[in-house]
Amino acid sequence: MTDQWLVLKFGGTSVSGREQWATIESLARQRLGQGYHVVLVCSAITGVTDALQRLAERAPARADSGIDKILSRHRQLAAELGIEIEDLLHDAAEQITLALKQIAGATDEVSLYAGMAALLPLGEWLSTRIGERYLARSLAIDWVDACEALQALAEDDLHARRAWLSARCVSNPDPVLQKKWRAKVPLLITQGFVATHPQGGTALLGRGGSDTSAVLLASRLEARHVEIWTDVPGLFSADPKLIPTARLLRTLDYEEALEMAASGAKVVHSRCIRAAADAGIPVRIGDLGNIDLAGTTIQHHDDMPAHDTEGIRGVCCQPEMAVLLLQNLDTREQVGFLAWVFAQISQAGISIDLVATSETTTTVALNMTTNHLDESILSDLAASLERRCAVTVYPHCSTINLVGRGARVALARIDPGSSFFADHPLLMLSQSANDLCISLLVQAEDADELLKIMHDALIEAI
Fold first, then answer.
1. What gap in Å lies between CA 421 and CA 42, rounded to an integer?
2. 169: helix, strand or coil
3. Which domain, by its residues, includes 423?
4. Pick from 231, 255, 286: which residue ends a domain?
C-alpha cells in the first residue's frame, strides 16, 4: 500500500442501478490492488435532487407523496442490490421533513437558503449510504462526511443565496485530514455537492458541484489524479446528440477544458476544472458502461501531445442565456456609467458572462442557470438599471462558443457561415483576451443551426 490517494467520482446515472454499482465495485477493487488509498465520491441518483427541489416548492400539506416517491426510488435500488435500508429511509424521511419545515417557516433569506442547503444534498447522503452497504459485502469500506474535509469560504456571506447554494471552498492540502483518513480502511465513500458553511450547517457547491467536490477533495488529499465516471466517454468537439459526427477529444489542457465547460459542455463543471488547474491535478473522464475505452484526460498544456495543442477543439452551445441591451439615456460622456451598471448587477449577486460596449450602448449577457436566475429576478434587475438607461431584455438566448488555442485564426475560416446572419440577428460577438474562445450570441431558436454550421466549417473540414 502506497501513501498516494486516488479520487473516483460517479455521477447520478452511474449510481442508479445494480450493473453500475457492480462496475464501481470492480473499479474500486482494481485501484486498491494498485496500492492506492481510494475515495469514492458519489452524486445523488439521477432526478432525486430535482425531486427534492420540487418538494421545497410545494405546500407542506402536499409534501408527503413526494417524499414517498423519493424513498420508493431508493427502496427499489436497494432491492436490486440485495441490501436492507429501511433504517436509512427512516432517517432520510426525518431529515427531509425537518428541512421542509425550516424552509416553510423561513423569515429571511438566510434561514430559507440554509433550509434548502439542508434539503437538497440528502440524495447524496442516501446514495453513498446505500453504496457503503452494498460494497461492504465484499470490501472493507468506511463512509466519511465530505463536510469534514471541505469548508466554504466566509467571504461569500455577502450574498446569502451564493453562500449557501453555490459556495466556494478552501482547497489547500490538509495533512491533518490525510492522516485521519489514512488511519481508516483504504476504501472510503463520501457524498459530493456539500461543504461546511462558516456559520455551521451544510453549504452546497452549486448544481454540478459533485465534480468540484471530487477535485477539491483530491487537492486536500494531494491525490495523484481524479477519475470522473459518467455515461459518456469524455468531452467531444460538439454535443454528439446535436452533431452525430462530433469527435472524442483524447486530451485537453486545463484552459481549453475550462473554456469548454464554461461554454456549455456539460460533461464536467467549469468550477471543477478551475479547481483542478489550481491544484495541478489531472482529471480523467471515462464511460462507466465501457471502462476500457480511452476517454478524455485534462492536464497541463506542457504534458499535451504536440498535435493537440493548436486550433479550434470544440464548438459548444451554452443555452439559458439572457441578454440586457442598455442604451445610455445621455449620449454625452458619462464618467462611471459602466461602473454603476456593474455595481447594480453585483449587488444583485449576479455574475456577468459576456459584455460589449460602445459610446451609447452596452450589451450584457448573463447565465440564467449558474446565477440561479428566473424572469422575475431579471425583471427586478432591469427595473434597477432603468434609472439611468433604457433596457431591452432578451430572456431566451444561446451562445455558440468556438474554443481552442489561436481562436483568432478561426475568424478567417467561418466565412461560409457569415450568410447565416443575414436572416438571423447576431446579438453579440465576443473574443476572449486569452485567445481561447470566440462567442456568438444569438436567439435560442437559431442556436442549433449555427452550431452545425460552425462545426462543419471548423472541425469537419479539418
1. 44
2. strand
3. 313-460
4. 231
Greatest mean pLDDT range, 34-43, 62-71, 348-357, 424-433: 34-43
Task: Write down the residue that cell numbers 466565412 correspond to.
Answer: 415
What's the rounded mean pLDDT across residues 290-299?
A: 92
Residue 261 resides in a domain: no
> Which DSSP string corresponds to 368-436?
TTTTT--HHHHHHHHHHHTTTEEEEEEEEEEEEEEEEETHHHHGGG-GGGGGGGGTS-EEEEEE-TTSS
Question: Domain holding 206: CATH number?
Answer: 3.40.1160.10
Residue 252 counted as domain residue = no
Q: Which residues contact 58 (CB under 8 A, 6 or more apart)?
A: 66
Query: What does the pLDDT read at residue 60?
Result: 67
Grid cell digits, residue 116: 434548502
222 and 337 housed in the same domain: no
Is 1 a residue whose pLDDT tops 70? Answer: no
Residue 267 lies in a domain: no
User: What are 406's three cell numbers?
Assistant: 489561436
**The three three-digit cell numbers of residue 53, written as one number:** 427541489
Query: How many domains does the structure of the chain reveal?
Result: 2
pLDDT value at residue 419: 77
- Over the stretch 259-278, which tens digit does the pLDDT of each residue have? 888 877 778 888 899 999 99
Rounded Cα gap, residues 407 and 405, in angstroms = 5
- pLDDT band, very low/low/confident/very high, at 120 (cuts 50, 70, 90): very high
All three cell numbers of 441: 450570441
Backbone angles phi, psi at 400, to 5 degrees: -100, 120
